[in-house]
Automatic annotation (TrEMBL), chain B:
Belongs to the binding-protein-dependent transport system permease family. CysTW subfamily. It comes from the Bacteria. Residues 60-263 form the ABC transmembrane type-1 domain. This is Sulfate transport system permease protein CysT.
Automatic annotation (TrEMBL), chain C:
It comes from Paenirhodobacter enshiensis. Residues 70-277 form the ABC transmembrane type-1 domain. This is Sulfate ABC transporter permease. It comes from the Bacteria. It is a multi-pass membrane protein. Pfam families: BPD_transp_1. The complex is composed of two ATP-binding proteins (CysA), two transmembrane proteins (CysT and CysW) and a solute-binding protein (CysP). SUPFAM superfamilies: MetI-like (SSF161098). Part of the ABC transporter complex CysAWTP (TC 3.A.1.6.1) involved in sulfate/thiosulfate import. Probably responsible for the translocation of the substrate across the membrane. Keywords: Membrane, Sulfate transport, Transmembrane, Transmembrane helix, Transport. GO terms for cellular component: plasma membrane. The chain crosses the membrane at residues 21-50, 70-95, 116-140, 206-230, 250-272.
Length: 239, 277, 290
């Protein structure tokens, strides 16, 4: 799905989280929102996911104004930094949640739900953990379950807030490739937030560098590395 | 074998142990042992004869039945109240929050005469309801209201801190997965609050079963109809029938014990289901 | 073109909030129920007390029996509450600073009075210390009756308020751990000094909080005290018992005036409690979470 951000601004009371920013994301791209802490990455992602309402500006999905679309209607697969798994549900119940929550008419039959969950578990390469609870999983496993849960609703886009933030360096590297593979397999427009430039450069088709609520530069990783548009980007990249 | 007390550099073991055990024994354990002793020396058979009378059964049944419904009301209302206090901001929220504790702070006898004054046929609420043929004071309904009053804060106070700590992202996750707010409340939030709500329910129930002060005024104490079990104990004592009093007292303890055990098991089960916290 | 007037926007619903009508409805519902259940009784106490004017209420309180009831209640609380505070501190210290077998049992036993009817509590004391029992008979012979006398009232009060202080302190002291005390001890402080200069300052607000709740219950206890006191007018009738007697004699103004006095005490307790909760929120957090 093609995503267009049109002059989106957001302030929380006195603090301005986002200056008016505009950005077009081509369908099927894997995009990194890169920037230091407090630069407004999460805020932008949450506005896309429908968890936050912009102070001004519009969000367009495939050309249609979707600013006022509710979270439920957006069908954005969202992966939270804390994963936000349901602790009282097993892995199976977590992944099946979005399907079971559908109104009766749209709800797939039980067997179909089970089939889809099994398929997703294969996709994240964790078959055979269906009956475990989130607390019985490692950090990396939790992250992948959260991803599978988001994918289960057949989302129109995938939004990930620091998906690897809570993991140690080794697991991070492994899961990076996992995300790339899943992106390539599903073809979903995917936006992930990170403040790790290696991660952004290695993984993304398009990197959006942000600072203090502004977009400093948008470009392919090598463009950003070779032709930083602003002193901030240059400093951030070489740091 | 594990030592009875693990060695520790902390001072004051014998002093704190001494004070704790002495006072616990003197104030709680020995008197309760005296009750059991009285029952034991009276004998199981005679005790059963005391209890197995229509009037006693009716009183016991009344006490536990009304206490259960009062606790049930408090369970539902307490969860709602906790949710409103934690999640909604409105003028006077602090005041409402403080008012929740009034039943804890207000002496039960005071609550009893106040509720009676309100719900008696010539009272403020009583006179409104009279034209519709509704009688509250001196009926089971009056007892129910008194027991709801005394048990009001328990569920709210146990649920509130848990509700405060619910991770918003979990709710947001549910919404991004397409769940309606109602579905989220039922499937995600309710299970998280359940163990705390059950704890509050058990506390409210225990309190309501044994409650005396607020009930005797509004109940009217009509034999076989609105006589609660603790009142029967008081009446036996006034006749110096210690054996009779002990029999009913032990019966109450036994039933309470079974009830609380059941709630505890339910809670272990719900924690296991919801557990993994 | 970028500024879309916000009035044209469709209404946005937060993901973590109920729709506004539900919210308003719920707030109205709980406020209404609380008004009927809690506020109305509060109002009726004062309206009944002043039903015949301020002077009548004031005069009723001057009666000698009532004065002695007020005095007795204060005396009982003044003995029972500090004793329970000492117990609470000792029990909390024992439970949080040492590891020993049977700790869970001990905690259950301390909480036991919460699940015992006050009337049964009073009954237990009568069966232990009544004049016709072994212990009680001996004490009466020594000129120290317990039941139908002040010591019995104190013990009944202590029974029903027994867990109050300990319950508030234990979670706070668990949260604070043992490191500070250990540090003080390694620096050569004596046990008492460590307690007074390290532990006590850390738990003082929780202690005060527990004492406050304990005191409110102590001054208001009815069932347990009714059983052991014998209700001897002017001698063993505490304020709540005096209320019952006056009420049963249809002395409504006097009964409600006395009730009003206890209500004021309850309101002051709530006020202080709220102040503590707001002012020392962090130190009481563990208590509230418990
Ligand atoms: N709910 C909120 N209320 C008030 N201020 C907020 C809120 N959310 C974000 N902010 C502020 O908006 C700014 C941008 O925050 P945002 O979370 O988008 O940053 P971020 O780039 O995701 O940072 P990080 O890398 O630390 O996650 C910050 O100054 C933050 O304090
Ligand atoms: Mg962020």
């Amino acid at each position: 799905m093609h995503i267009e951000i049109d002059e989106i601004a957001k302030s929380f009371g006195d603090t301005t989280a986002l200056q008016p920013v505009s950005l077009a994301i081509p369908s099927g791209a894997l995009v990194a929102l890169l920037g230091p802490s407090g630069s407004g990455k999460t805020t932008l992602l949450r506005i896309l996911g429908g968890l936050e309402y912009p102070t001004s500006g519009r969000v367009l999905f495939d050309g249609a104004d979707s600013t006022g679309l509710s979270v439920q209607q957006r069908r954005a697969g969202f992966v939270f930094q804390s994963y936000a798994l349901f602790r009282h549900m097993t892995v199976f119940e977590n992944i099946a949640y979005g399907l079971k929550a559908r109104p009766r008419k749209l709800r797939p039959p039980r067997a179909e739900i089970a089939r889809r969950v099994a398929k997703l578990l294969d996709l994240i390469q964790l078959p055979g953990i269906t009956d475990r609870y989130p607390t019985q999983l490692s950090g990396g496993q939790r992250q992948r379950v959260a991803l599978a849960r988001a994918l289960a609703i057949e989302p129109r886009m995938l939004l990930l807030d620091e998906p690897f933030g809570a993991l140690d360096a080794k697991v991070r590297k492994e899961l990076r490739h996992g995300l790339r593979e899943i992106h390539d397999a599903t073809g979903l427009t995917t936006i992930f937030v990170t403040h790790d430039q290696d991660e952004a450069m290695e993984l993304a088709d398009l990197v959006v560098v942000m600072s203090m609520g502004r977009i400093e530069q948008v470009g392919r990783p090598q463009d950003i590395r070779e032709r930083p548009a602003t002193p901030f980007v240059r400093e951030f990249i070489t740091a | 074998m594990r030592p009875f007390v693990r060695p520790s550099p902390m001072p004051g073991l014998s002093l704190s142990l001494g004070i704790t055990l002495t006072m616990l024994s003197l104030v709680v354990l020995l008197p309760m042992a005296a009750l059991l002793w009285q029952g034991a020396s009276f004998g199981i058979g005679p005790m059963w004869d005391v209890i197995d009378r229509d009037r006693v059964w009716k009183a016991l049944l009344l006490s536990f039945r009304v206490a259960f419904f009062a606790a049930l009301f408090n369970l539902v209302f307490g969860v709602l109240l906790a949710w409103v206090l934690v999640r909604y901001d409105f003028p006077g929220r602090r005041l409402v929050d403080a008012a929740v504790d009034l039943p804890f702070a207000l002496p039960t006898a005071v609550a009893g005469i106040a509720l009676t004054a309100l719900y008696a046929p010539n009272g403020l609420f009583g006179s409104w309801l009279k034209p519709y043929g509704i009688k509250i004071a001196y009926t089971e309904w009056g007892i129910l209201i008194a027991l709801i009053f005394v048990g009001l804060p328990f569920v709210t106070r146990t649920v509130q801190p848990v509700a405060e700590e619910i991770d918003r992202e979990v709710e947001e996750a549910s919404a991004t997965l397409g769940a309606s707010r109602f579905y989220t409340l039922c499937r995600v939030i309710a299970p998280m609050l359940a163990p705390a709500a059950l704890t509050g329910f058990a506390l409210a129930l225990a309190r309501a079963v044994g409650e005396y002060g607020s009930v005797i005024f509004i109940a009217g104490n009509i034999p076989m109809k609105t006589e609660i079990a603790p009142l029967l104990i008081v009446m036996q004592l006034e006749e110096f029938n210690y054996n009779g009093a002990a029999a009913i007292g032990i019966a109450m303890l036994a039933i309470s014990f079974v009830l609380l055990l059941a709630i505890n098991l339910l809670q272990i089960w719900s924690r296991r289901r919801i557990g993994h916290v | 073109m970028s500024e879309t007037p916000s009035s044209h926007r469709p209404r946005f619903r937060s993901a973590t909030e109920e729709p506004a009508p539900v919210r308003i409805g719920l707030i109205a519902f709980v406020v209404l129920v609380l008004a009927v259940l809690v506020l109305a009784p509060l109002g009726v106490i004062f309206s009944e007390a002043f039903a015949k004017g301020w002077a009548a209420a004031w005069k009723a309180l001057q009666s000698k029996d009532l004065q002695s009831a007020i005095w007795l209640t204060l005396v009982v609380a003044a003995i029972a509450v500090p004793l329970n505070a000492v117990f609470g501190v000792a029990a909390a210290w024992l439970i949080t600073k040492f590891d020993f077998r049977g700790k869970a049992v001990l905690i259950t036993l301390i909480d036991l009075p919460f699940s015992v009817s006050p009337v049964v509590a009073g009954l237990c004391l009568v069966l232990m210390f009544g004049a016709n029992t072994m212990v009680g008979g001996w004490l009466v012979a020594q000129g120290m009756p317990i039941v139908f006398a002040i010591p019995g009232i104190v013990m009944a009060t202590m029974f029903v308020t027994f867990p109050f202080v300990a319950r508030e302190l234990i979670p706070v002291m668990i949260e604070q751990g043992r490191t500070e005390e250990e540090a003080a001890l390694t620096l050569g402080a004596s046990g008492w000094r460590t307690f007074l200069t390290v532990t006590l300052p850390n738990i003082r607000w929780a202690l005060l909080y527990g004492v406050l709740l304990c005191n409110a219950r102590a001054m208001g206890e009815f069932g347990a005290v009714a059983v052991v006191s014998g209700k001897i007018r002017g001698k063993t009738a505490t304020m709540p018992l005096a209320i019952e007697m006056l009420y049963n004699e249809y002395l409504s103004v006097a009964a409600f005036s006395l009730a009003g006095l206890l209500t004021l005490l309850a309101l002051v307790t709530l006020l202080l409690k709220s102040v503590l909760e707001i002012r020392y929120a962090d130190q009481l957090a563990a208590t509230r979470r418990h």
